[in-house]
Amino acid sequence: MESTFGKNIRVTVFGGSHEPEIGVKIEDLPEEAMDIDEERLQSFLDLRAPGNGPFATKRKEADRFEITDRSQSEDGSWQLRAVIKNTDQRSRDYKKLADVPRPGHADLTARYRYGDGLNMAGGGPFSGRMTAPLCIAGGIALQYLEKQGIKIGAHILSVGDAQDRAFDPLAPEIDMVKGMEPGKIASLSEEAAEKMAAVILKAKEEGDSVGAVIEIAAAGVPGGIGGAMYDGIESILSPIYFGIPAVKAVAFGAGERAAGMMGSENNDAYCIEGGEVRTKTNNAGGILGGITTGMPLTVRLSFKPTPSIAKVQESVNLKEMKEEQLRIEGRHDPCVAVRAVPVCIAATAIGLMDAMAE
Ligand SMILES: Cc1cc2nc3c(=O)[nH]c(=O)nc-3n(C[C@H](O)[C@H](O)[C@H](O)COP(=O)(O)O)c2cc1C
Q1: Residue 61 in contact with residue 86, Cβ under 8 Å?
Q2: Residue 91 pLDDT greater than 70, yes or no
Q3: Number of Cβ within a 10 Å radius of residue 67
Q4: In whole numbers, what is the pLDDT of the chain averaged over residues?
Q5: 128 lines ligand 1 (CB under 6 A)
Q6: DSSP string, 18-69
Q7: How far apart are the C-alpha atoms of 316 and 337, rounded to whole Å?
Q8: Distance between CA atoms of 352 and 217, rounded to whole angstroms?
Q9: Going by C-beta distance under 8 Å and a sequence separation of 6 or more, which residues neighbour residue 266?
């Protein structure tokens, strides 16, 4: 199965969790984006790879990418195709899920939509594993945006009731994020990371899972990117964010908090700084009318708790059409957000690169 994002630069992710490979095809890349530092790209992918530390699934995948095509079109734009081999599938863990769907996962709805021929082992095309090829495209976009003076960062803002401090919306401390390493919790405060780790490990011990919020910031984004209505930055970024499995809410700037403010509080007052128009606050998260203001872009993504949990759950047997208890085998993340931080950065980079190519 494959799925495509993008209007100007098209990113197509293909494969499945227990297929021989997963991969990405990128079409209409500008020449400058083809100057790829492959070592840095691999390090970026490593941040998401499974098998590292107590917060991630024990599935062991090296997630080494291989570029299988680099070609230039007659109009001068570039195409790139890259794959990652799946090496540690354990499909037996998923046999019984074909008839007894996991509550909270896509097993039942995938069957409604695609019938029972789809390989849903490991979550199939709905798996968090599909975010690995997204990170290849995102890592390339990130390197391209850096050359344009744009920097993107993210951290876990909260897990359950454990909270990190938020980015400064006027000057996000992207370089201050700690724990940007495989298997670690990315946060601004180390104390918060310890508290979040404790919440995740407690959920894991109890055979449960826990949700989280990831905060993303992009600095150096010039004013004037995006457009009216469906060409707006929120309209461009939201589909790629919702393409990340388990994302349930997207909030730009003050997001839903804006609904509780007075206009005089929410409006970001203008000022002149260094000869440029700036705002004194940034409730808009760097976007007004779908167009960037030149202030940092800030977004929060809410992740639901991992659906696959060790606790016994109520489900149904679709073959026998009777209710049945389900005990899930297999290896799962107790909090998907831990490995999703680079994915959020990748999605933002791809969306911005596409919007900037307009
Ligand atoms: C990085 C990442 C890892 C994930 N790992 C798991 C996992 O181990 N087990 C699981 O049940 N769901 C996992 N998910 C979430 C499911 O893929 C997702 O909840 C499911 O496809 C249903 O889609 P929805 O939650 O968007 O409705 C992961 C998601 C991401 C982003």
Answers
A1: yes
A2: no
A3: 14
A4: 94
A5: yes
A6: TSSEEEEEEEEE-GGGG---HHHHHHHHHTT-SS-STTS-S------EEEEE
A7: 28
A8: 12
A9: 254, 258, 283
Residues 6 or more apart in contact with residue 148 via CB below 8 angstroms: 220, 356
Q: Give me the residues paired with residue 46 across strands.
A: none
Residue 120, phi then psi, degrees to nearest 5: -95, 5
**Separation of alpha carbons 117 and 243, rounded Å:** 22
The residue range of the domain holding 87 is: 2-356
- pLDDT at position 293 over 80: yes
In angstroms, rounded to a whole number, what is the distance separating the alpha carbons of residues 26 and 353? 12
Distance 246 CA to ligand 1 centre (A): 5
- CATH code of the domain in which 347 resides: 3.60.150.10
Phi and psi dihedrals of 154, rounded to 5?
-155, 160
Give residue-wise pLDDT tens across range 113-126. 999 888 888 788 99
Q: Is the model's pLDDT at 52 over the cut of 90?
A: no
**Calpha distance 160→353 (Å, rounded):** 33
Atom of ligand 1 nearest to the CA of 339: 1
DSSP assignment string, 247-306 = EEEEEETTGGGGGGS-HHHHS--EEEETTEEEESS-TTTTEETTEE-SSPEEEEEEEPPP
Residue 93 has pLDDT above 80, yes or no: no
Q: What is the pTM of this model?
A: 0.96
Ligand 1 contact via 59 beta carbon (within 6 Å): no
Q: Are 153 and 214 in contact (CB under 8 A)?
A: no
Q: Is the CB of 17 under 6 A from ligand 1?
A: no
User: Mind listing the pLDDT tens digit for each residue in 154-185?
Assistant: 999 999 999 999 999 999 999 999 999 998 99
Mutate to test the pocket of ligand 1, among 47, 333, 338, 345 (most ligand atoms within 8 A of CB): 333
Burial class (CB in 10 A: 0-12, 13-18, 19+), 304: middle
Based on the structure, what is the number of domains in the chain? 1
Widest distance between CA atoms in the chain? 71
